[in-house]
Amino acid sequence: MNITFRWYGRENDTVTLEHIKQIPGVKGIVWALHQKPAGDVWEKNEIKEEIEYIQSFGFHTEVVESVNVHESIKLGNADRMKYIENYKETIRNLAEFGVKVICYNFMPVFDWTRTEMFHPLKDGSTALFYEKAKVDQIDPKELIQTVSSASDLTLPGWEPERLERISELFEAYKSVDEEKLWENLAFFLNEILPIAEANGIKMAIHPDDPPWSIFGLPRIITGKASYERLIQISDSPANGFTLCTGSMGANPENNMVEIAKEYANRSPFAHIRNVKIYENGDFEETSHYTQDGSIDVKGVVEALHNHDYTGYVRPDHGRHIWGEVCRPGYGLYDRALGIMYLLGLWDAYEAKKVGRQS
Ligand code: DNO
Ligand code: MN
């Protein structure tokens, strides 16, 4: 388990690398060129500057999250090859600087979706919250307002430029159903995976969050069946998954312990967090502690440990605690607590294993 921490860069994060350095066990920073619009090539000089800064703190920079996929690729538009070629160039450039894993997602229009960014929890903290009935009724434009006004920092997937085109995008997706989206994903993967493989990079698709269709848009990376279909598209070792317990696990039908057992070897990257799911389909993000939510985080870590998992792991979102002012879900304190929980579990399983062997 190679512990990492997501960081949004010098200009776009309240957390500093000096702070992250004080969290025990963190080996690497999960980074990105966040200012880059989807579809642009990440140039070598830009990559170099960012990783040199991060590495000057002693962190590795082997995981990128995310290189976003241009909407034309997801829609299968006539100009998609231009963006696919750019994506290939970004893969080659990142490989040259030692990147090993690229996390990406294939969600139409929106990245992760929540109805509240700072929802009060019973313990006095706040956290991201998803109210199912609200998403079923709300005009997506109104939701965009809520999300983008929640923070002064740009939230990935909710960039103002992208959202200006929202009506146009919704119109375009009218002709893209789930099957068509799968076709477009397969086309993209068949183009980029040979490049990734030849350059020693593993692509790691992030599940849709939440893992069901919202606003009538198709969503396809939602559970075990999606993983099987991805493997059918390509068995290349470069065709990997990001095992995100909180995203996929927001659907109680997805047993994350079973999924971890079955797909750990296909997942070069894991996001670990907990969510508490209510009967009406609402969910809130909780601490990582197993007893606080609906996901068996302890069981997931045990499954990874049984696999002798050497992949990259990061705490995913956290609550906002102790008065911290931060990006929604990406404060320092609760994610640091999450790391301590993961390390504690890991060490306990390790001790048990050594005990068994001696
Ligand atoms: C949610 C988060 C997401 C994720 C991107 C990956 O679980 O991890 O913001 O980073 O969707 O592309
Ligand atoms: Mn995630």
UniProtKB/TrEMBL annotation:
InterPro entries: Man_deHydtase (IPR004628), Xyl_isomerase-like_sf (IPR036237)
Keyword annotations: Iron, Lyase, Manganese
Cofactor dependency: Fe(2+); Mn(2+)
MF-aspect GO terms: ferrous iron binding; manganese ion binding; mannonate dehydratase activity
EC numbers, comma separated: 4.2.1.8
Pathway: Carbohydrate metabolism; pentose and glucuronate interconversion
Class in the EC hierarchy, top level: lyase
GO BP term, pick one: D-glucuronate catabolic process
Pfam families: UxuA
Coiled coil: none
Keyword match Cell division: no
Task performed by this protein: Catalyzes the dehydration of D-mannonate.
Record family assignment: Belongs to the mannonate dehydratase family.
Cited PANTHER family: MANNONATE DEHYDRATASE (PTHR30387)
Matches recorded under HAMAP family: UxuA
Protein name: Mannonate dehydratase
Biological source species: Heyndrickxia shackletonii
